Amino acid sequence: MEAASRCCGQYIPRAGMSNTILIIEDDETLRLTLLGLLSRKGYEVQAAACGLDGLALARETRFGLILLDLRLPDIPGLEVIARLHEFEEDALVVTMTAYPEVRTAVAALKAGAYDYINKPFDLDDLDSLIRRAFETRQLRREVEWRRAQAGGDVVPGLIGDSAAFRELLETTRKIAAAGRVPALILGESGTGKEHIAQSIHSLSARAAGPWVTLNCSALPEGLLESEMFGHEKGAFTDARQAKKGLLELADGGTLFLDEVGDLSPALQPKLLRVLETQTFRRLGGSKEIRVDVRFVAATHRNLPAMVRDGGFREDLFYRLNVGSIAVPPLRERAADILPLARHFLEQAALHLGMASPAIQSEVMSRLLAYRWPGNIRELRNVMERAAILASDGVITVEQLPFGHAPAPARGESAATAGEGAATMSLAAVERQHILRVLEHAAGNKTRAAEILGITRLTLRTKLREYELRPGAGEGDEDGFQPVKN
Ligand SMILES: Nc1ncnc2c1ncn2[C@@H]1O[C@H](COP(=O)(O)OP(=O)(O)OP(=O)(O)O)[C@@H](O)[C@H]1O
């Protein structure tokens, strides 16, 4: 993974492969112009005047991006793409082509080019195309990395990098494998409880069986009871036909009882009985029906407190709580914020039919500093909104609902938090961001490195580079202190 780009936003060229561009262009004026302009923007640029020279350079160096003219004096651009892919499968190629050659450009896309730009082009357009290309590559890498990390045992759709998240996955896997043992998932609204419940089902031996959900707070008591247990014909005025309940429909699978804390006192003992015996009667029925159902329940309520106050039966609580999972709020697993933000942004961009926008470094700081009372659901909404409002392929603070009111990180003044990156040098932005993340992580370098998406060693190097030298910070393994200027 190109970790460095995660901390400062892809729009700022970084050291390493994601910073390197090869231009293959025979028109000398254009070649030299591009070389000069892109170098000034901070990219490391090399150039070749023909296809074969370009291929030779690409063999020597792995470039982050290749800008390729399709009409070259020696070999056709399409052939350059084909040969390139022989030794570098995931080479990112953007073709440059004159207007009448659009069809060739399309052929280039089919041959594996990432995108094309028509000549003559506006340099700003080229610049944003380059930024998007790098961002796409970054996302692809992250997906690959996550797959590799998970060793193929990834839980579908669940994103997260924090130690708390990994622990959560581990518990989920263990409970999924524990036969018909009931599970109780506790956590604030929007933390992903339903997602975890679904994972318990899909990772369990009953994954091929039905997954049935019942929201205990959505229906009045009578209706909820008939939904759960079903009814016989004539059981009540409107019961013109017998109807199976969700318990029967979930036979052989999992029944998810969402908001179980809202289950009425009258229904609680009825649920307890099914949990204990796996048998029940339909409303108005006399026949005992036996099912094989695994119960997974969730609530955002403080169930132990409800048990103490008499609002929830103790025996039912203990029965459900055999497999117990506590989902931490997002603010307690900061390392998940950026991977989730990128994920939701990518999803939204896909949905909107646009390339995934880059995230400005200031935006990342704000996302990390915000407390997320609505948890992951709120983050998803914020990123979807930002994707819609994004201009020039970059998400800026203006697109955050809390962008105008600075949300400073702990221990940081609002004035510093509001300082715009636009007037700062690249090094100053990076230094400030590292400082914020370190503060956010209470000086813990391992955690800070995790949030920044870099190794601890890289973080140490940067601390030295920016003269943020180890001291005796609170909560730090070996402490850090910014050197006073
Ligand atoms: N780890 C995750 N990775 C990706 N998306 C997630 C993750 N956790 C939650 N989400 C997404 O966040 C949103 C909220 O999750 P979910 O509905 O599971 O939360 P919840 O805790 O059940 O909320 P509530 O208590 O309000 O019912 C959903 O869109 C879900 O897909």
What average pLDDT do the residues reach? 81
Strand fraction band? 5-15%
Query: What top-tier CATH class of the largest domain fits best?
Result: Alpha Beta
Largest sheet: 5 strands, parallel
What is the total domain count? 4
How would you explain this protein's 3D organization?
The chain has 485 residues and is α/β, with parallel strands linked by helices. It folds into 4 domains: 3-149, Response regulator (Rossmann fold), CATH 3.40.50.2300; 163-330, P-loop containing nucleotide triphosphate hydrolases (Rossmann fold), CATH 3.40.50; 333-407, Helicase, Ruva Protein, domain 3; 422-485, Arc Repressor Mutant, subunit A, CATH 1.10.10. The protein is built from 20 helices and 18 strands. The protein has a 5-stranded parallel sheet, sandwiched between helices. Strand 3, helix 4 and strand 4 form a beta-alpha-beta unit. Helix 15 (361-369) runs parallel beside helix 18 (426-440) and helix 18 (426-440) packs across helix 19. The structure holds adenosine-5'-triphosphate. It comes from Aromatoleum toluvorans.
Search tags:
alpha/beta, Helicase, Ruva Protein, domain 3, 485 residues, Rossmann fold, binds adenosine-5'-triphosphate, five-stranded parallel sheet, 4 domains, 20 helices, disordered N terminus
Q: Which SSEs are present, and which pair or pack?
A:
Blueprint: H1 3-8, E1 20-24, H2 28-40, E2 44-48, H3 51-60, E3 65-69, H4 77-87, E4 93-98, H5 102-110, E5 115-119, H6 123-150, H7 163-176, E6 183-186, H8 193-202, E7 211-215, H9 221-229, E8 230-231, E9 243-244, H10 246-249, E10 254-258, H11 268-277, E11 279-280, E12 289-290, E13 294-299, H12 303-309, H13 314-320, E14 323-326, H14 337-352, E15 358-359, H15 361-369, H16 375-389, E16 394-395, H17 414-417, H18 426-440, H19 445-452, H20 456-465, E17 468-469, E18 481-482
Parallel strand pairs: 1-2, 1-3, 3-4, 4-5, 6-13, 6-14, 7-10, 10-13, 15-16
Antiparallel strand pairs: 8-9, 11-12, 17-18
Adenosine-5'-triphosphate binds at residues 157-160, 187, 189-195, 300, 340, 376-377, 380.
